[in-house]
Structures are given as structure tokens and as C-alpha cells.
Amino acid sequence: MAELTYRDAVAAAIAQEMERDENVVFLGEDVAGAGGVFKATVGLLERFGPTRVRDTPISEMAILGTCMGAAMTGLRPIAEIMFSDFLAVCWDMAANQMAKTRYMSGGQITLPLVVRTANGGGLRFGAQHSQAVENWAMAVPGLKVVAPSSAADAKGLLAAAIRDPDPVMFFEAKELYPVKGEVPDGELVDTLGTAKVLRSGKDCTILALGAMVPRAVEAAERLAREGIGATVVDVRSLVPLDTQTILRETIATGRLYTVEENPRLCGWGAELVSIVAEEAFWDLDAPIVRITTPHAPLPAAQALEDAARPSVERIVDTVRRTLG
Amino acid sequence: MTEVMTKPPIAEATRIAMYELQYRLRVFEKRAYDLFLQNLVKGTSHLALGQEAVAAGFATAMRPTDWTFCTYRGHDHTIARGVSMTGCMAELLGRANGVLRGKGGSMHLGEADKYAMGSYAIIGAQMCIALGAGWTSQYKRTQQVSVCFFGDGTTNIGAFHEALNMAAVWKLPVVFVCENNMYMEYTPIAGVTAVKRPAADRAASYGLEPIVVDGNDADACYLVAETAYERARRGEGPSLIEALTYRHGGHSRADPATYRPDAEVAEWLKRDPLPMYRARLLAAGIAEATLAAIETSANAEIDRATEEAKNGPLPSLDEIEQDTWADGTSTWRN
Questions:
Q1: What is the value of pTM for the model shown?
Q2: How far is A146 from chain B, CA to nearest CA, in Å?
């Protein structure tokens, strides 16, 4: 076991896969010479050279288009979109082209590619550099959607995403980049579409994703000190979705909470909750509760941003108040 | 602009093949139009009647493993890479024997095995996607060229700028071919563009030469293509070529193109690439019987393709949820 930051785990996954497969290539703004604005790709240029690790102009359409065309013709590219908010300027590539070309070609064209992007709030960057937009991608058939919450998952899930034969949108929680965690030594490859039960409790089940996972875990620890047992499930992958684990853990406690960084309307929790409502309604003991960011742009000021995003305190208070 | 040549440095067999290809493209598009009028083709379609010389010249100069990326006006560019008329017509008719099994339709024709990498229906997308094929070629040193077709209207979308700049900076083996048919959909391109030549006048922005070619002249297109492909294979980077041509019909099925002055249409019909090229080959000593045999064969081919398309089975409803993912399914949960 080594202790790595989340950002170093990202670089470690890319290096592991580039070492293993010469078809893996990487492009994005400031990713090569500068090692990424979040320093998540430091050292890759030096190790793999400028034909495989390439800086691009500020041209998100061209970045994703190049990524897609490379995937169509035999490479296994990884593209970085610096902030997930910028997906809005190249959404044609993600939603119309990458997502649909395999289907529209009658299965002729395969697109083994990964789009990595720094997602979510916590850095006081304001409403255009702080959004959590994994729910946008979740709404598009043809995109897989993954969001790791720890260094080990950042490495293992990114490696799995690179080896996956389909387009994967990989949402890295920018708030978690400096957070350290234990990462197993040697080659690490996880499995997409698997949720992880991080702790078990008898009273309620909390589903969380990305940056919200450490908050849900800390909330569960505080609740435990008050005698409330909370199961925490790290959803990890929205598409494919590990519905079996979600249903099983929900049925086990009969009480369900979701903790979402997405704005309220059509956040990923809404879809998960609808699955539970359709398939486990009679196993629920009380209404489901969604803990989300309000349906408003995310404000910049620290005091406002902290209050807008689901916090440990809000999770604890909400569970305590509603569990009664 | 490249002048019309009576004796271009192109092998006779190649020129005959280009006549045959243009003729086949013409009969395909005319038949597609007939089938719309009979309401056998649903949805929309964008015919390239009048633009055959561009497709024929540029495709004929390619190697079999060069890639084509084109627009929703892509029937010609797809067939020009050797994709069957039956597969294309059946796709237009929504049949299971369509080249995309009925999943894509008129605007998305392509066949990966023929290196026809698809037709793209959102303006400009394929210009960016073509870069990726260029990167594959450059990285693997395969000498393949990525050839990207687009219309004059595409020169005003951001993707045009992003793609050309990055292709030039990365020195990618991509050849960008603007088919300037003078209209972006229903609007004259001159009325919405700040320069006279929408592609060529912008080449300097990317450190590229302005290249304009007669898009109704297959020989001229072939020669300019050959030069650009050689430059790409030598590692000297992309080219941007503007081919001047004209749509004989409207933008799409719904458009009778009444906004175009009669005199302009008449002038361009006089420059119809098919009869022009036929006359030129005859003048070059190619036998009338050779050309007539090509025409007879193509007429039979389109009749056969039409029948095979009409008689093709409807797609199985299982297709709806097939092939979203590489495992053949659309499964998103366990």
C-alpha cells in the first residue's frame, strides 16, 4: 500500500495504462508541459513523450473531436476537459457524436475513449467553474458515467475506463485532488458499474457520489455516536448503474437518503429514487429524502458555497430530523 | 483556380473510372429523388446532384485505406468509397439491409470497412473528428490521409476554426475540402460571410495556402487532391481546398430552391459536370461505346439496388436497444 493523493492516483492510472498499451494517448489544455492545472497529469509528458501526451489550444470541440476520431481509427485516447463546466462548449461532441456514432453506424464503429474532467465545487470558483454536471452525461444514451471518491478508486476506475470499449465520461471531484488515501501497490484495475458499501448501519441507507462520499461517511460516523446506524453506499458509476446493490442496501434499512452535488432538478438521485420507488416501494418505511444543492447557480463566496452544497452538518441534521 | 485541361496528366483508365463514378452518383441521387416523390423515403435527405465531380475526383485520388469524413450531404462521398448502392438505398428506405441496418438513415451513411467513416449531421463536427484519424496516422506512421468534406456554411461555425488551427499546429495529415455550392441551406453564403471565398480567404489564418478548384471538373479535383494527399503523406500538414460547385436542387427534400435566380441556375446547369466530362473524354479519343456501356451498366445497377432496397426486410424491433454499447446491448443497469 502506498499513500497517494487523488491527483497523483489519476496520473498513476494514466501512466499504468500508457505503459501497458501503446495505443493509449492523452490530450488536453495544459496537460503536458504544465502537468495539468490541477497537477493531475504531472510527469506524463516526460515519461511518454510529446507524440502521446499533447497540449492543445483552447479548443474543446477539437479536443473531443480529435479524441473521438483517434478512437474510431484504432487508438485508445484520453481527453481532458479542464473544468466540467466547459463540456457545455463541446457538448455536440459528447452528446451527439461520441454517444451516438456506434449506434447510428449499426455497430460498425467502436469508441474506446475517456473524457476526464474536474467536476464540482469547493474551490470558490463561482458558477461557471464549480458545477457538478455528471447528471448531464447520465441523461445521454451512449455515455458511461463514472465518478470516483477516493485515490484508490481514481486509479482503479480510471484504468477500467481506459480499458472499456465505450465512451466514458470520468468526473474527478476537484475538491478531492489533494486528499490522500491508501492505494494498493502494483497494477490496479477496478470494475465499472459496481457500487461500494463503505459502512453498514441498521437505521438508514445513504447514497452518495464523488465529493459527497467523504461527507456522507463523516456524517454516518457522527450519527453513529448518537446511536443512529447509517449504511453508506458509494454509487461510483451512474452508467452502468449497480441497481442491485442500491436496492439491496435500501431494502435492508427501509430508509433512503441521497446526497447529491447536482442542483435539485434532475440530479442523479432523482433517477435512483424513481428506481427504488418502482421496485422497492413496499420495503420502504418512510418517504425518501434527497439532500441536494439548491436549484440555483453555485455562488462564489465561501460562506454561500459551503452552505449551498450538502455538508456533513446538513446530512446529519436531515437524517436526525427525518428519521424520528 | 485550376483551369480545365483537355489533356491532364491522369491515366485514361482513371478518367474513365471517374466518369463511371460520377454517372453512378448521378443515377443514385436521381433515383433517391424519385423515391422521395413516391413517398418511399421518409424523413429528410440532402442530395448532391450537380456536385458529383468533387466526390469523384477526391475519392479516386485516395488510397483504399485513406479515411473519408463527410456531411449529411454524403450519399456521393459514401458511394465513392465503394459502399454499395443497395446498402445506401436500403438505408434511405429504412430497411434491415441498409448499410447502417436502418439505425442511421440518409444523413449518416458510412461503412467503416471501406474507410468511409461516416456522415455527420451537425455542422462542423466531422472537421474536428477528422483530426483524430490524422493523429492515428501520424502516431502510427501509417501514411494514411484523413479527408474531410464540408459545405460553405460550415466555414462560419466555431468547429471550422478549432479544427483548422489545431490540424495546422499539429501538422496532421488531414485534407479539408470545402464544397462551396454558394448557399448555406437557403441563404446565399456571400450574404453571411465577411470574405469572398469562405474557405480559401481564411487559409492564411492557419498558415495555409489558399487553394480554389473548379468543383465541377473531376480532373481538376483529382489533381488538386493528389497534391494535397502527397503533402499530407510527406508530413507537411493539412491542406484547405475550396471547390466551387452548385447544387442542382434545393438544400433538402423540403426545399424547392426558389430563392435562386433563374439565370444563375441556367448558367450552372450549362456547367453540369456530367455532360462536360463526357464531352471531354470523347474529345480525348475515348470511344462512345465505352461510355455508353458504363451508362447501361450503372442504369442496371441502380434498378437492381432499388429493387433490393424495396424488397429488403424491415428492421427487427430488437434493433431499438441494440448497439448502444460495444457488447451489442443498451444495458445501463444490473
A1: 0.97
A2: 13
